[in-house]
Amino acid sequence: MPRGRHRIACAQMTSTADFQHNLQTVTELCKRAKAEACEALFLPEAFARIGATDASYAEPLDGPIVRACCALAKEYGLWMSLGGYAERDGDGRKRFNSHVMIDPRSGEISGDVYRKIHLFDTDAAVGVDGGGMRESDYTRAGTTLASYDTTFGKVGASICYDLRFPDVYQALRFEHEADVICVPSAFTKSTGQAHWEVLLRARAIETQCYVVAAAQAGKHGETRESYGHAMVIDPWGRIVAKMDDPSNEVGIAVAEIDLALVDSIRTQMPLAEHRRRVRAEF
Ligand SMILES: O=C(O)CNC(=O)[C@H](CS)NC(=O)CCC(=O)C(=O)O
């Protein structure tokens, strides 16, 4: 695999409950990514549908959402990171929040599905209405990490609230040997303002990976608003692409993934060699 430069597109969109409407947006973003000569398009969490707090719109991996995206990946020649969609669980009572990577060469799912491990349960006043959120009421937590061999390096998966748990990123870097980590999100406006950029940059710096953070932005309906600010960060912690303010714009932030930069930063500062397993002692 060439350790060179690769253009990728990081999406920002305002999904609704209507899959057909969201699919039109995704198609438009594919066109723009292709016009910008990108190899990949990263979509945010809940790109296909947002809003339900039950498992009603969950689908299996061979359902309409993933099938439509496989066709787009093939048509536009783009790796597609499906940031998170409601995947049907066995008995249909709960869903998984699942990340899927699609390989444009086959038009099929690449590698393992990543099912969001950390679920967003909080009483903090995060919604437009000041209500909390209880993702675990309708979502089953995943238990294993996943990473993907792509033409632009090894991509590790995480989703949204996972961003607050650095162990995920340490494992993706040091066990999965990721070069790029995606953090597709639907961050709330209030927590996003406080924490989004600093957490993303910290994860990039401490893993020496590119961090690609596709984001939901703006109002999804009466009660829900997302922070936006989709961005790509390089392994030195620099923001190399970002959606402009006002942050509720739909579009792509285009960045170059320079795998030679990943290698040189890791040579200059060899965290993999210096890392110690630290345990609290009492
Ligand atoms: O599944 C869907 O429909 C969309 N999913 C989400 O919006 C998820 C679970 S409610 N949101 C987050 O994880 C926000 C985390 C966050 O905002 C923080 O960590 O501060």
Automatic annotation (TrEMBL):
<dbReference type="GO" id="GO:0110051">
    <property type="term" value="P:metabolite repair"/>
</dbReference>
<dbReference type="Pfam" id="PF00795">
    <property type="entry name" value="CN_hydrolase"/>
</dbReference>
<feature type="domain" description="CN hydrolase">
    <location>
        <begin position="4"/>
        <end position="259"/>
    </location>
</feature>
<dbReference type="InterPro" id="IPR045254">
    <property type="entry name" value="Nit1/2_C-N_Hydrolase"/>
</dbReference>
<protein>
    <recommendedName>
        <fullName>CN hydrolase domain-containing protein</fullName>
    </recommendedName>
</protein>
<dbReference type="GO" id="GO:0009507">
    <property type="term" value="C:chloroplast"/>
</dbReference>
<dbReference type="InterPro" id="IPR036526">
    <property type="entry name" value="C-N_Hydrolase_sf"/>
</dbReference>
<dbReference type="GO" id="GO:0110050">
    <property type="term" value="F:deaminated glutathione amidase activity"/>
</dbReference>
<dbReference type="InterPro" id="IPR003010">
    <property type="entry name" value="C-N_Hydrolase"/>
</dbReference>
<keyword id="KW-0378">Hydrolase</keyword>
